[in-house]
Design brief:
- By secondary structure, the protein is an alpha+beta fold.
- The protein is built from 4 helices and 5 strands; from the N terminus they run E-H-H-H-H-E-E-E-E.
- The longest helix has 14 residues.
- It starts with 23 loop residues before the first strand and ends in a 5-residue tail after the last strand.
- The relative contact order is 0.25.
Length: 151
């Protein structure tokens, strides 16, 4: 069989190779109203807390907020582009949303490798998203699979 995945090293053919336990990657982004609109276009989520500034400011969050999918989406980019890298997809996520993210806030996604399998390109990651004040907005654990992309 000529499939890279069938080789003895389960990480053969992956772009970045096998990550190390303890390895960390981060990715930051300032949220924008364009993010809210793009997410609404994909999902149909037009919650007034994302669009009605006066209403949102008078409620519990005190600000116009982005959808949770915008917040967690930065983790998608972090794992797919940085660690473990290209070809990586989520197998599972156990996330808690702890603080709403406002439109115009800079957030930072962080992943840390907790476990790495030798036989398959699967990792367990500690995941978090923090805001510019250092507050944790999302935290949890995720499992990823990295598809071998090299031929």
């Amino acid at each position: 069989m000529n499939d890279a995945f069938s080789q003895a090293d389960g990480w053969a053919g992956t772009i970045r190779g096998k990550p190390r336990v303890g390895q960390v990657a981060e990715r930051a982004r300032r949220t924008r109203m364009d993010d809210v609109e793009a997410f609404s276009g994909m999902t149909g989520d037009h919650n007034p807390l994302h669009y009605d500034k006066d209403l949102a400011e008078s409620r519990v969050f005190g600000k116009l907020i982005v959808q949770g999918g915008v917040t967690s989406g930065l983790l998608n980019a972090c794992v797919a582009e940085s660690l473990p890298g290209p070809g990586t997809v989520f197998l599972s996520c156990d996330w808690r949303f702890l603080k709403a993210v406002g439109v115009g806030e800079t957030i930072t996604a962080r992943v840390e490798v907790l476990t790495v399998r030798d036989d398959k390109p699967i990792c367990t990651l500690k995941t978090a998203v923090t805001n510019e004040d250092g507050d944790t907005c999302l935290e949890g654990i995720a499992a990823t699979f990295t598809v071998p992309l090299h031929r």
